[in-house]
Amino acid sequence: MLLDLNALSAASEEVPIEWRAFLQRTDGGVVVRGDRVGGTEIYLARDARVVSDRLDELLTHLADRGREPQLSAFGISALLHHGLVPPPHSEFAGIDGLTIGDRVTIRGDGAIAATWEYPWFPANSRNDNTPDEAHLLELLTAATERQVRDAGGGFLMLSSGKDSAAVALALAEAGRSDVFCVTYSSGPEDPEPAVAAEICKRLGLEHRVFQLENDPAAIATALTAFFRSSPAVGADLAQIPYVLATAAAGSPGGVVLDGGGNDSYMGFPVTGRWTAKTRLRIRGRKLVDLVQRHSPVDSPLNYLARTRLETAISGRMMRVHESRTFFPGAVDTRHYWQERDRETADLDLFDAYAVLERFITPPSSQKKHNLAARAAGHEPGVPWCGPDIADYYFNLPEEHRYDRKTGTNKLLLRSMLLRYLDYDAAEVGKHYFAFDGARFVAENEAFIRTEIDACPMWDRTGLGLVHGWIDQIEQRPKLYHPILTVFMVSGWRNHSRFVTDGAVVAAGANDE
Question: How many CB atoms lie within 10 A of CB 14?
């Protein structure tokens, strides 16, 4: 859905009902909000004053009116440095990507102010809802059935972790045996397909396994099709297998369900690993600069040179001095995270990590899901992002949501799975879509090099750095993430129908 905010300038014009969760009229202006749970993408073109829940729709609308956005220097740099574009930024200059807690006020005189206020801090919980596994399953089943029914069918990306296992349970409760489940397998040693198959057997759901084959020609065809149809680019660690598995799962149409989206209101697990990283962080700007300048990009020292919130970003990403060797438009994005650290400096680690959903998950794992689903001709569905579920779960007593002593989260969800699925989350352990990125780089080296060399954003004389990383992938496998990030950005810039040949990198009004 797309809305021209200029049409709301008349005092008699009402906000359409489908936009009332995201828009509010003010005296002579309007306030645009991100989805408080993060399930709906909200994009705002500032100068044109147009808002949409789909970036492809917004870009098409602007192009039809002769307004072709330029690429954002901050957005592209953030992808290279962090593997994601944090809110309220996007890949395009002047286009905000709004999510949990975002608020943009557009006044009648043209002034624009952007702020954020996170709604899911533990202290905001009423702690007065009654814990009830049956009620939680009822809410999840209703949300799941609604998304499947509205889309006319679909399938679930089942990682076999507790979140997607719960959605599979909800499908069975709704009687949707017509909706199958897809699990990505990274190889014979991967335990995930067997766990997922057992879940589906118990629930009476069809289960399919996607195995990434060593077929460079087929992979090049599939990824080029993704690049061509995608309005944005994802650099999540699992973006490539997610794209390939989604595209191979079925013909276009229906919804692709995903189990993500609930960490915001259920609480992010503050594990000993994150605590250790935070305590061991290197302080002092000069020392941080020294470490980042002289340590290899794949060195664990780089985690220790990150800000507190950045320590939760996965992957060994490049630093600004490395990106500047081949990307003339690169900007230093560290100040964004330094500012976020200042904003959360008074919060303890538990509360600070509560805001990670806003800064990391929507622009990373949820973006991965949305891009893959829509590129394959499906609609993305995230049942856990239902507002009714969020309000119920968040307002449970804390002892039924989170154990601060052990760092265990999602307590009522775990209890629900054990009761209705005989699924012991502690015994099953953490499951996710694993990906052998180093092997992928080695098997698809020619395609990767070709796309990187063809990208008009890069200075060819500086690409020797990236090609050198590719040469060393067998000896230094952790280099795969910065390599594949440059590759994904290159392929998208080379082929996306939403990026014109004349698009240049520019600083946007929303860039810091």
Answer: 10
